[in-house]
Amino acid sequence: MAYKQPVPEEFTTEIDDTEVIVSFYYDASDPGCYSGPYENCYPSEPESIEIVSVLLDGVDVYEALTCQEQEELDEKCLEYINEENQSRAEAAADFYYECERDRRAAALEWGGCDGY
Known about the structure:
flat, 4 strands
């Protein structure tokens, strides 16, 4: 199987009241494994952000940002990821409950029990 190149996340935000488009890679934290056979153990790793570009009118300005602005962008990237994960979890829960409601309605329509 061929290796699939990850696609960067992308969102729009503001730096000093100027709108920019931020592209970045996100690597979730890994709790590691410290029990079991030695060959299966590995250390934990924190979550990480790698900013690919910060576009202002199509020009990458990441290198021109101050260290503080770069750190603020890292924080905004993490906030974006947390918001996206929350909205994906809510969408998955909504889909589950809609399917469950439809399944029960279909069972009742056919005169059967609702599965319980």
